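#struct-help
A.M.: can someone run this one for me? Single chain, 170 residues.
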Amino acid sequence: MTSLARRVNLSETSTWSVDLGHVVARYGLVVVLAWIGFGKYVKMEARVLIEHSPLMSWIYDFLSAGAVAHALGTAEIIAAVLIALRPVGPMISAVGSAMAVVLFLGTVSFLFTTPGLAVGHVAGVPILGAQPGQFLLKDLVLLGVALWTLGEALDARSKSGATVDVVRVS
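D.P.: on it. Structure tokens below:
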């Protein structure tokens, strides 16, 4: 095989793997959001995490633990559906992605507010326990994917020539 043939094959493989990666990232995010969202209607409650968060603990003054779980679950399901609609409309997907970014920023913040996540330290680096520490850590990656889907959807919208009107209130 000549070096030119190898380059063409590598280029095709690269393009194929990037395209496949985009599909897996977007719809993997959709599956994770929807699955976790539906789980909030069954058993997956976040009270132990939220009650230690200075940003979110106040919500239990107004809503029951079940209502909070259902509200979060509903938001996650809506975000998943909107992200999945990317082929129909980039802006619809962008809204879902923005929702996912906010949701994941909330859960990533729990890494810093939930006591007892670290089960030890090695060379000054905290070792996270499986639950909830490692469970929360994966949200860093999901946050990155949500940011990517947001940027990709907004970029697709701008390439279509569409504009968004901004109204300023003075």
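A.M.: thanks! The mean pLDDT is 85.
D.P.: also worth noting: Residues 12-159 form one domain.
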